[in-house]
Design goal:
This protein is of the alpha+beta class. The protein has 19 helices and 12 strands. The chain has one domain: Cytochrome P450 (Cytochrome p450, Orthogonal Bundle). The protein is globular and about 60 Å long. GO terms for molecular function: heme binding; iron ion binding; monooxygenase activity; oxidoreductase activity, acting on paired donors, with incorporation or reduction of molecular oxygen. This is Cytochrome.
Length: 398
């Protein structure tokens, strides 16, 4: 009987329940919410033996860890493999304290609400043109033809690097794949992520437009606010995350409106709810599903003792679907209030959040004025180590 009782106890690692799941595998990518529920239900902190990391997936715990940047550090990298953490050393994402704030403030010069306001007429024209064009088509791809259009046409130009938007997309997707463990996807993406790294190392004034965002980072280096190598690497902060995350959130927005006609009717009747719809789409999309943090000091979380240099996977997407925080998290609701962690939380909140909101709201306003019905079908999930969303789906407007 004693042996039976012992064998019935859940396996633990230093007090954390063991969850034997590949967080970055095809199963978790294709059916993520089942995996996220396993993480949340197992406990506040779990151990993932396949990756050798702890993980947190409940909303309150994720938000607490993101707020406690003195304990859960980004400066040793946010990837699940050492190579990516080494390559990302000079980026804003992989920094802490004064270094992070200096880099962040330089990026924010281009990304505050005031700074992006002059771009609004361009975004509005492109949004109207996109919706009008798609209204003439019997069907279109919700990602390639709708969600991708505004970021690619507008944001790629604003970044101001002399590479094609398509190349930026390839680099961005490869970079996010490279932030997972050294699995098949990460190895396959290595050429792309290294290509972006080598491009930024070689970048100079001749590679950027004088009034683009990238130029402002080089200007900061000229003023001595950051080092030259630091500035070159910080351009990754513009190139890698500026497209995919907004595209995936916009795709989720369109998919949600197409699968719930009542929500679309409500939004058309009450366009003041457009900002709420955007926030809810980001919650449901959770386009960056997981980053890691390195523990800086001994700490307790959920009865688990975490030690310095422990690696913890912070699963944003699991937190945003936590039933403890959100009633019926699987539903898209225009009545939902309160924050989510789709753009992060704390000092590492997404610096491009205001621009992403503006792009999505602008597209929605163009739709509300022109589109009566939205239909969607045939979703194909994106397979990426750290990004989450739809690769493609069919859609139509009437």
């Amino acid at each position: 009987m004693t042996g039976q009782r012992a064998s019935s106890r859940p396996e633990t690692h230093r007090g954390a329940p063991v969850v034997d799941v590949d967080l970055y595998g095809d199963e978790a990518v294709d059916d993520p919410h089942r995996v996220y529920r396993r993480l949340r239900d197992a406990g506040p902190v779990v151990w993932l033996p396949r990756h050798g990391v702890f993980a947190i997936g409940r909303f309150d715990d994720v938000r607490m860890a993101l707020r406690d940047d003195a304990t859960f550090r980004s400066g040793r990298g946010v990837a699940a493999n050492p190579l990516a953490n080494t390559l990302g050393h000079y980026t804003t994402l992989a920094s802490d304290d004064d270094t992070h704030m200096t880099r962040r403030m330089i990026l924010m010069q281009s990304l505050t609400s005031r700074a992006i306001r002059p771009s609004l007429p361009t975004l509005e024209r492109e949004a109207v043109a996109t919706v009008d064009r798609l209204l003439t088509h019997p069907g279109f791809d919700g990602i390639a033809d709708f969600a991708t259009r505004l970021p690619v046409q507008a944001v790629a130009e604003l970044v101001g690097v002399k590479v094609s938007p398509e190349q930026m997309l390839r680099w961005g997707r490869a970079t996010f794949d490279g932030l997972g463990p050294t699995n098949r996807r990460a190895r396959r993406s290595l050429r792309g992520s290294l290509g972006l790294f080598l491009y930024t190392i070689a970048i100079g004034r001749r590679h950027v437009t004088p009034d683009g965002w990238a130029a402002t980072v080089l200007d900061a280096a000229d003023r001595g606010e950051i080092g030259r190598i630091e500035a070159k690497n910080m351009i990754i902060d513009f190139v890698a995350p500026s497209l995919d995350t907004t595209i995936l959130s916009t795709g989720q927005l369109l998919w949600s409106l197409g699968t719930d006609p009542e929500v679309w009717r409500q939004l058309r009747a009450e366009p003041d709810l457009i900002p709420t719809a955007v926030v809810e789409a980001v919650r449901m999309a959770s386009p960056v599903r997981v980053f890691t943090r390195s523990v800086a000091a001994h700490t307790q979380m959920g009865g688990v003792h975490l030690r310095p240099r422990d690696r913890v996977a912070v699963v944003f997407a699991a937190a945003n679907s936590d039933e403890r925080r959100f009633d019926h998290p699987e539903r898209f609701s225009l009545l939902r209030r309160g924050s989510n962690v789709g753009w992060g939380h704390g000092v590492h909140t997404c610096v491009g959040m205001q621009l992403a909101k503006l792009e999505m709201q602008t597209l929605l306003r163009a739709m509300v004025e022109r589109v009566e019905t939205v239909s969607v079908s045939d979703p194909i999930p994106l397979r990426n180590n750290c990004l989450q969303g739809l690769e493609s789906f069919r859609a139509s407007f009437t």
